[in-house]
Design a protein that fits this description.
homodimer, alpha/beta, Rossmann fold, 3 domains, six-stranded parallel β-sheet, 12 helices, elongated, DNA-binding
Chain lengths: 348, 348
DNA sequence: AGCAAATCTGGTAACGTTTTCGGAAACGTT
DNA sequence: AACGTTTCCGAAAACGTTACCAGATTTGCT
């Protein structure tokens, strides 16, 4: 199959290649009539500029990459879709790549940028304990979202970060459960071993709340998702809850650090003949759409996912175009009180 | 920031650029020692070949695109992740783009292919009533998955298609409900207006089952998701079910043509004080992971999603490399009988 | 009418690779 | 020793664009 190039179009129109190039790129230095004719010919022959040649010459591509760490997460799927929409608006293309837990996201990004001459990177999830030198080597802006905490000693001007204060919001949820009278509150946590990871932060929030309320931490109520499992999957929640139940430790509330984990846990509870919220109150974290539809609807902390995703993309584009500098945005989350939690039964 | 090129590496090693190129691309015509030295220098200086230049010269890129029609679908999110994994294995990069309902996927693909010199396209969802001429113009292989039905008059050698027989599997589900004694079976359907769309096919399956069992179709039990809504979202299911309930038509079973719709519907049922499966049996379609965890777990038709996604990617790669020809694969789905359905109560 | 300025245009040199081609050196074989 | 082979290598020509520069034409102003 023959693919016309800019030369062919030029020949067809009896003009030089530079003129065709000008027509394509909306250059001002061109006669509107010539431009019209060229555009028409282009249309007629179905000419589409070769991106590789263009990128080579321009020495950068109108593209970004979205790197996702932590698979099978409804939350990220949602964000990706929104980010893709923003890319489309800016006529950027988006490359998506899921990266393994043991891979270094900054290294991968670095390579990708060099290879494809991308203009920026969005990074979703994962923990975040990078070295400053690596960040310094980055030649394009890097925006993190829904990532773990940032080590204090790294200069904030090297990257952007958008999200909520996981530790604080997690504490808010546990405070709420305590407010309902719960004292024996179990927690289902994933990735808590990774320093500064999201899971870790949410667990810290749990500790904070207990401490502040003078409740002693019962290690038997802190249940970790097996490291071999996908951290935030329903299956992980299910299995972890089963383990918790098997442990025999009593609890009146179960807080899972992700809605998906909570849903898995509810099934385990159900199988054990426990009613939610009758016997156990259950709450999650994230505020995925689903949480509102299941029966009973799930009490959760809603992250402003759409706003976060949209702003992540917009901020990146603004930094690329020089309109804004790197910044660190912390959104407020919202506690959604729903059917899965209730005040502790005083008769018990 | 200075980025070394192949010339720099060549100079640094005191060899010609072609030799460096040979080292990078594992060409046999090179002295192992020289290769070793070059590779070492590359490592040392962090050289990464410029993809644009490479693609330009090679006149094609090691990349494919995944085009998704029909947004906010858990099912697709899952498939995309699996496909991305397969791409990674083959060292292909993947471009993701969601396309609007009114856009022509083949046109978009065509443009993308010309622009980026992609080697193939995977197309997820949407209906599929393409013209043969357009398909003929395609210069790279095109694999559809989870798409609507194929018009019979289009030559099957022009594209591949992988999926299940939606009409038959849908009928299977309705047959099952009828087998449980249900006669007044409501259906929640989306996109049924689009000829040959997935929604339409599933609705046809419903009609087939009723007809075969001598049950007259009650139009009051066929409930369409509003066209303004996202077709397969939970919200759509919720709203549609509310409309159905408001219609006042009695039914003992509700079949939603997607699990997400079913989950939305269950909430509406719940709000109306109806118990599942006590008062109404509910079933879905797709077999997303979630369906197994919610309470009551959802009876559904499981599409072999992982197998489909994996095979879609593999088939595309095989066609690209000439190992296989275009083909049309129809997988068997599996009816998963779970807690949300039960035999109709004879006392009623 | 004359000249400067504005408008438009085409030629051409890059951009960083891969690949072809011919040649040099090293190696076997008679 | 003379020859063909093999092994390795470098020069240079693409690939399809964009951007710079210089030239040609038109326009605007005295």
């Amino acid at each position: 199959m023959f693919e016309p190039t800019i030369k062919d179009i030029a020949r067809l129109c009896g003009v030089g290649v530079s003129t065709v190039s000008r027509a394509i790129n909306n250059h001002p230095d061109i006669n509107p009539e010539t431009k019209e004719k060229i555009l028409q010919t282009i249309e007629e022959y179905g000419y589409v500029p070769n991106n590789s040649a263009r990128n080579l010459k321009r020495s950068d591509a109108k593209a970004i990459a979205v790197l996702v760490k932590g698979m099978s997460n409804l939350f990220f799927a949602n964000m990706i879709e929104i980010i893709e929409g923003e890319c489309k608006k800016k006529h950027y293309s988006m490359e998506l790549s899921y990266i393994e837990a043991d891979e270094d996201e900054v290294d991968i990004a670095q390579r990708l940028v060099k290879e494809k001459r991308l203009r920026g990177i969005i990074f979703l999830g994962g923990m975040f304990a990078r070295s400053e030198e690596k960040l310094k080597k980055l030649s394009v802006p890097f925006v993190f979202s829904t990532a773990g905490a940032i080590p204090e000693n790294i200069s904030k001007s090297l990257y952007s970060n958008i999200g909520v204060d996981d530790r604080r919001e997690s504490k808010r949820m546990v405070d709420y459960l305590i407010g309902l009278g719960h004292r024996r509150i179990a927690i289902l946590v994933a990735e808590a071993e990774e320093v500064q990871s999201i899971g870790r932060l949410r667990l810290e929030g749990y500790y904070d709340a207990l401490r502040e309320n003078g409740i002693e931490v019962n290690p038997g109520l802190v249940c970790h998702v097996s490291q071999k499992m996908i951290p935030f999957s329903m299956e992980s929640g299910y299995l972890a809850a089963k383990k918790l139940l098997a442990g025999g430790e009593e609890f009146t509330a179960l807080y899972a650090v992700a809605d998906t984990l909570a849903i898995g846990a509810e099934r385990a509870l159900h199988e054990a003949g426990l009613n939610v919220p009758g016997d156990v109150s259950v709450s999650g974290y994230d505020g995925i759409e689903l949480a509102n539809y299941i029966v009973p609807s799930l009490t959760t902390v809603r992250q402003p996912i759409e706003r976060m995703a949209r702003e992540t993309a917009r901020l990146l584009f603004d930094i690329i175009s020089g309109k804004r500098q790197h910044q660190h945005i912390v959104y407020e989350a919202e506690l959604l009180e729903r059917e899965s939690t209730k005040a502790v039964d005083l008769r018990k």
